[in-house]
Amino acid sequence: MKDHQLRALVKVAEEGSIRGAARALNLSQSALTKALRELEGDLGTQLLIRSYRGVEFTPAGKTLLSRARLALSTLDRARNEIRWLRGAPGSRLPPP
C-alpha cells in the first residue's frame, strides 16, 4: 500500500468518479486507474465497482477509505511536525 494509492482512493470518493479524481490530482485517467488496480491487487480484493454512472465502493473499499483518510491525515501531521522541528519558514505546529 502506497501513499499515492491511498490519496487516489480518497480523491475518487471526494470527486465521485475516476475521471474527476484524475483531473483533481493532475493525473491521466489511466495512471489513476493503474494506481487503484495495484492497490486492489495488493489487497487481493475489489475496492470499487465501476459503472457508467461513476464508482461505488465495495464494503472492503469503504473500510479502507475510512482508514486511508485517517492514515493520510496522520502522515500529513507528521510532515508538518517535522517541518516545524526543522524550523522551516512559515511552519506552524497545529494543535493535536
CATH architecture: Orthogonal Bundle
Give the % helix: 55-70%
Query: What number is the mean pLDDT?
Result: 91
Regions with little confidence, pLDDT below 50 for 5+ residues:
none
**What fraction of residues sit in β-strands?**
5-15%
Radius of gyration: 15 Å
Annotate the secondary structure layout.
Elements: H1 3-15, H2 18-24, H3 29-43, E1 48-51, E2 54-57, H4 59-86
Antiparallel strand pairs: 1-2
What does this molecule look like?
The chain is mostly helical. The chain has one domain (3-86): Winged helix-like DNA-binding domain superfamily/Winged helix DNA-binding domain (Arc Repressor Mutant, subunit A, Orthogonal Bundle). Helices cover 66% and strands 8% of the residues. It has 4 helices and 2 strands. A two-stranded antiparallel sheet has the order 1-2. Strand 1 and strand 2 form a beta hairpin. Helix 1 (3-15) crosses helix 3 (29-43) and helix 2 (18-24) crosses helix 3. The longest helix is centred in the C-terminal third of the chain and has 28 residues, at 59-86. It is elongated.
